[in-house]
Amino acid sequence: MTNSRKRHTPEQVVRKLGQADRMLADGQDVAAVCRELGVSEQTYYRWRNQYGGLKADDAKRLKELEKQNATLKRLLAEAELEKA
Fold this sequence. Notes:
The protein is mainly alpha-helical and 84 residues long. The chain has one domain. It is 75% helix and 0% strand. It has helices spanning 10-25, 30-37, 41-51, 56-83.
């Protein structure tokens, strides 16, 4: 069985959340919105918690900063191991 999960860029997530907001404002329920967007309700709520209120550029910048932070943490850990 293949993994059919699709990875969305932060910009795509923010765009889909915007679509969801409009659909919810039009009276659709969350389940219908999620079906229309092609995501599970669990994914929708995770995205809402992670990206809610961000613009596409903000979401991209957040991902870049998270990646940079992980790299810096790894480099610091390596440097501390070399000292020991």
